[in-house]
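Title: Prediction job returns without error message
Component: structure pipeline
Severity: low
Priority: P3
Assignee: unassigned

Description:
Job completed but the reporter wants confirmation the result is attached to the right record. Sequence as submitted:
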Amino acid sequence: MTEAEWQARCDLAALYRITDVYGWTDTINTHMSARIPGEPTAFLINNYGDLFHEITASSLVKLDLDGTVYSKDGSFNAAGFTIHSGVYKARPDVNCVMHTHTRAGTGISVLKKGLRPISQDALAVLDEVVYHEYGMPTSQEECDALGISCQQGSCVVLRNHGLLSVGATIPAALRRLYMMERACEVEIIARGLDEEPAPIEDDVVQGYAARAKAQRASPEFGMTDWKAALRLIEGKGSDWRQ
């Protein structure tokens, strides 16, 4: 394989380890993927059945947007293929997709009215948040519909399901999902209190969105957080570069 593919494998395996440390796992039932540099129709995803702390660079499965598997061993989650292939087909600018079933994220996904501009965490993502109606997970219709939703925003609340984030890079997708998860946690806490949340003024919301948009335009978006997350898993002695 190319050096670029091996680096993508190492980075994606690290992302799975980071996701595990953050507590975003649902045993074996969520998935992250990365498009292979120089191969726009091919991407990497976890071997279905592996726990996230077990995933290594060499255990990842390589397949294309039509579902052809190039790895000698391993299998992929059918619903995961629907999600990731749908996004990559619709968003050629996206090189990483993350999907979670966390309690906070799934809790927000079942509400008719989801995230509100009531926290700094929400303001970091709110202008990119879109809501995608629940569909048959493994169908072509769902694959196409999710692609359309992702064209409207890079932070997706999958109704009655969970969360999804995308990015031009792995650090960008991680940063988006981290802030979206935080926003969902704060929203859930606020809804359980016997008091209306303090509103944030519209002009502040708009100003924050403009600043956030400018930050996301940088190729370095999310990189500082990524380097910190790598130090976190390295400190645990995890060797994902195998």
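Comment from assignee: result matches the submitted record. The mean pLDDT is 95.
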